[in-house]
Each structure stands twice: as C-alpha cells, then as structure tokens.
C-alpha cells in the first residue's frame, strides 16, 4: 500500500508542485490549503507523514505541530516543516515544536524527496 502524505500549504502553486512530485514517486497525497483543517483531517486519515508550511494565514504551522504532538493519535506522525522564512533560530524553534525535518523554500526536488524518504517509516 502506498504511503499517505498530507501536504499542508496555502500557496496553490507550491501545494500542487509538492503533490505532483510526491504522486510521481508513488505516494498518495492529501492536500490541505486551510490550516484550520489540519488537525481534524490528520485525525481522519492518519497520514504516514505531514508536510507542514509554517506561514499559514491565521494560524502558525509551529502551533499546529505542537498541537499535533500533544494528541495521542497524532504524536507519532513525523512532520516535515517547510518555510520561506528561514531566519536564525527558526529551525531550532520549529524542531523544538516537534518537527522531525526542516526545509527552507525555495525547495529543490532532490533534497525534498530525500527529506520525505528519511522521515517515512518502513
């Protein structure tokens, strides 16, 4: 069975790119544009990995990662944080929130896929 990856990204172009690349590699994807839907969607589908944009309208990806890590049903799902705002200390803050991986935008395909494969169990 293909691994299911939830792609949380408010930018339509980035979300489509991530999903297309993942599908081409044989993964199932669940795109999410609205940060407010992330936790309920994750509970519903139990993805193998969550790719999380950090700068979402109205809600922080860091807050979503922290919230997911507090929930028994979600805490073991690895999160790959992807952000355009890579300031000093950001990666540390994001990893402290519970992200297992971190990439700064713009993201190149090979490092992106390497990060995804690193975080997927099995």
UniProtKB/TrEMBL annotation:
Listed PROSITE patterns: RESPONSE_REGULATORY (PS50110)
InterPro entries in UniProt: Bact_response_regulator, CheY-like_superfamily, Sig_transdc_resp-reg_receiver
UniProt keyword list: Phosphoprotein
Sequence ranges assigned to domain Response regulatory in this UniProt record: 4-120
Pfam families: Response_reg
4-aspartylphosphate, modified sites: 53
Organism, as annotated: Erythrobacter longus
Protein name (record): Chemotaxis protein CheY
Signal sequence interval, chain numbering: none
Superkingdom of source: Bacteria
Membrane spanning residue stretches: none
One example of a Gene Ontology biological process annotation: phosphorelay signal transduction system
């Amino acid at each position: 069975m293909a691994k299911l990856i939830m792609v949380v990204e408010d930018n339509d172009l980035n979300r489509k790119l991530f999903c297309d690349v993942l599908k081409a590699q044989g993964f199932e994807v669940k795109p999410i544009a609205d940060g407010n839907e992330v936790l309920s969607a994750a509970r519903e589908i139990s993805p193998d990995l969550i790719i999380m944009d950090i700068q979402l309208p109205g809600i922080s990806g860091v807050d979503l990662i922290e919230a997911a890590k507090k929930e028994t049903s979600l805490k073991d799902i690895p999160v790959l944080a992807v952000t355009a705002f890579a300031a000093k200390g950001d990666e540390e803050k994001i990893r402290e929130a519970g992200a297992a991986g971190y990439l700064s935008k713009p993201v190149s395909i090979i490092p992106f896929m390497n990060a995804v494969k690193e975080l997927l169990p099995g």
